[in-house]
Design a protein that fits this description.
- With 408 residues, the chain is α/β, with parallel strands linked by helices.
- 37% of the residues lie in helices and 16% in strands.
- The radius of gyration is 22 Å and the shape is globular.
- It starts with 14 loop residues before the first helix and ends with a helix.
- Bound molecules: pyridoxal-5'-phosphate (PLP).
- Pyridoxal-5'-phosphate binds next to helix 4.
Amino acid sequence: MKINENYLKLEKNYLFIRIAEKIKDFQAKHPDRKIIRMGIGDVTQPLAPVVVEAMKKAADELAVKETFRGYEDSGAGYDFLREAVSEYYHSFGAEIPASDIRINDGAKSDCGNLVDIFDDSNIVLVTDPAYPVYVDSNLMNGRQLIYADSDESNGFAAMPSNDGYDLNGEKIFPDIIYLCSPNNPTGAVYTKEQLAEWIAYAKTHQAVILFDAAYEAFIQEENLPRSIYQIDGAKEVAIEMCSLSKTAGFTGVRCGYTVVPSELKTTASDGTEVSLAQLWNRREGSKFNGVSYPVQRAAEAVFTPEGQQQIKENIRYYQENARVISETMQELHIPFTGGINSPYIWFKCPNNMDSWSFFDKMLEEIAVVGTPGAGFGKNGVNWFRLTAFGDKDATIEAMQRFRSMLEK
Ligand code: PLP
């Protein structure tokens, strides 16, 4: 046998494994120090009561012969949940039929799996910095990547280059474009006008946009888009991935959804028109057997009026943490993005320090863990990400420690 040697070209350790090892070493050396973790983007608030009730009720149904359920027929998700998601889109002005929505076990799987339906010769554009899964899942298939710089000059919201992108000395245009808004790690959010520009660009270059909306629930400003489908023409060029992980605390429960609009079509090499939804359904039909019934019922509860009210309480809790972190940055005159429409605060390391050195400094001096921007791409080398997903008191204490470290 031969292995897929593309795996050998990946960064040796996934970012968060490297961080976990550093924390373990530090804790072994300093067992008495209380570490505050603001690194990994995991949530800390418990599930909404209405969600837990729905999950329990569904589990009870599975205990009775008449209501027991085995495989779900299509694997695309039960109609009750696909329709609830469709209604949710409708609530902010995007019309997505339930038939264009597939339920999955979270957005990470589809961020990686979707590329199965595209040829390996496609050129993939990723904004830099970016959620590492986009880069890794394409490198695993040996695809060539090009990068659109997100930096201070554009408010960490990269826009398309009409001159193309450099690849081995050539100017080249992308076939697959990953966009994430609100962005992980930078917290930047694209406006409707900016997304319209990306949509026009994708049309011109016959590219597809893979739009990651995992943090849409954190958008507070009414005029910012939660979905790319709020912009005209998006259905002909974009696939959208979303998740209940951060919206409703489903990081451990696992449930998300992907929209592949029926309008999204391309031409095969023999000239026939092909629907991307059909390819994706075919792929999923062979490789994915759906999400468990209790989890889908729990997800359905998220979209009820009671569910929405309960999850919004948790989101407000995290937004308050984000406010505490942002205010600290403002008071210390540290440049940052995010924190308002996003649970992430992305700030410039003081004295232009390298982000891994700043990580070590924070861990050693104040026992606060964040995520070095370098882990997300070259434009993150001097930047740092903190998350607002922690406990309120711990966040306040972390910011006090942070302030005293920098004022020293
Ligand atoms: N997309 C982005 C931008 C993320 O930050 C994450 C998780 O942190 C995911 C997708 C995956 O989330 P999940 O697989 O839990 O739905």
